[in-house]
Write a structure and sequence with these properties.
Layout (H helix, E strand, L loop, with lengths): L2 H6 L20 H10 L18 E5 L8 H14 L4 E5 L5 H5 L11 H7 L7 E3 L3 E3 L8 H5 L8 H6 L8 E5 L6 H9 L2 E7 L2 H4 L1 H15 L6 E9 L4 H14 L3 E7 L3 H7 L4 H4 L4 H15 L5 H7 L1
Parallel strand pairs: 1-5, 1-6, 2-4, 2-5, 6-7, 7-8
Antiparallel strand pairs: 3-4
């Protein structure tokens, strides 16, 4: 982002916290019934997850452990796919709003966000910002979304229904989720055609994969029979350390072909790029960090989605 662009977007960039909003309250039943009627029709059955156009891939980046490069992977994989000529939408479903911040916007001053889409059921197109890439933005209000959603009809399908409006406009929709397996992440799984799990190359990061697959198994049984882990990407890899190499070996021994061959190596470039409101592909387009996500994008384009039974067998 140039200095002139930064100046013009100054009211959206991070400049400190805003005043706290009123606590989220449950939606009255009458108002909720009106909002439910406003959604595009999506049947509340497991088969409904595959009823929308199959051409669009909705890929959720998920791991209940924080700090594993979910946001970094969502942004840079999305930009890499866009570079290759695909139409891509990113969705920031994390109350921390790091994906939104990574594109130079301040979640604390955003008036309409994914909270309003999920809870107040405004059109998702109202919260899509065209920055380096199309991005449905987050605000701090998302922190109260699970409480607000808990009283709503069809709460697990809020994102799936919201995407009906825009799904046909994109080849890929990538969803950045919070570091938990709560209702926001469940919403993402219900809407998804596949899940990519970024895993930091440390032993403790590997432990959460079984729990994530257990959650996906529940979603498959009750809400979306077609969602599976389609890939695991090793992040923060440091080939100089035995621990990183052993962590990758454990991944490959236990999950086989689900593990992408691309390794996202540790580099300061991934930390520097968000400061400029940019992906690493724009910040350092010829560097090894950018090329790693181009390689990952090529794998995503060519990788066959494996059946959930294989994923569970490896787990």
């Amino acid at each position: 982002m140039t200095d002139s662009e930064a100046a013009s977007d100054g009211d959206r960039r991070f400049d400190g916290p805003r005043e706290a909003r009123a606590p989220v309250e449950a939606v009255p039943a009458v108002e909720e019934a009106e909002r439910e009627a406003a959604w595009p029709a999506v049947a509340d059955t497991p088969a409904a997850a595959s009823a929308a156009p199959a051409a669009t891939r909705i890929i959720v980046l998920a791991n209940q452990k924080g700090g594993v490069a979910k946001t970094t992977t969502t942004l840079n994989l999305g930009v890499a796919l866009q570079e290759m000529g695909h139409r891509v939408l990113l969705i920031d479903l994390d109350p921390q709003g790091n994906l939104t911040m990574s594109q130079g916007m301040n979640p604390d001053v955003i008036e309409k966000s994914m909270f309003d889409v999920l809870v107040h059921r405004i059109p998702i197109s109202d919260v899509i910002e065209r920055v380096e890439i199309d991005l449905a933005v987050a605000s701090i209000d998302l922190a109260g979304a699970e409480l607000a959603l808990s009283s709503l009809i069809g709460r697990e399908r809020a994102l799936q229904k919201a995407l009906v409006e825009v799904r046909s406009r994109y080849d890929f929709i990538l969803v950045d989720t919070p570091p938990s397996l709560g209702l926001l992440t469940i919403n993402a799984f219900v809407a998804a055609t596949g899940v990519i799990v970024p895993v930091q190359c440390e032993y403790l990061s590997l432990r959460g994969l079984v729990q994530l697959e257990n959650t996906l198994a529940m979603v498959r049984e009750n809400l979306n029979p077609d969602v599976n882990v389609e890939g695991i990407v090793a992040t923060m890899f440091d080939g100089r350390t035995l621990h990183s190499r052993e962590a990758v070996e454990i991944l490959e021994e236990n999950f086989g072909d689900l593990v992408f061959t691309t390794r996202i190596r540790k580099t300061i470039r991934y930390a520097e790029a968000p400061v400029k409101g940019s992906s690493v592909l724009r910040y350092d387009p010829t560097g090894s960090a950018a090329e790693a996500y181009r390689e990952l994008a090529r794998e995503v384009l060519g990788k066959e989605v494996l059946h959930g039974a294989q994923a569970r067998e490896h787990a």
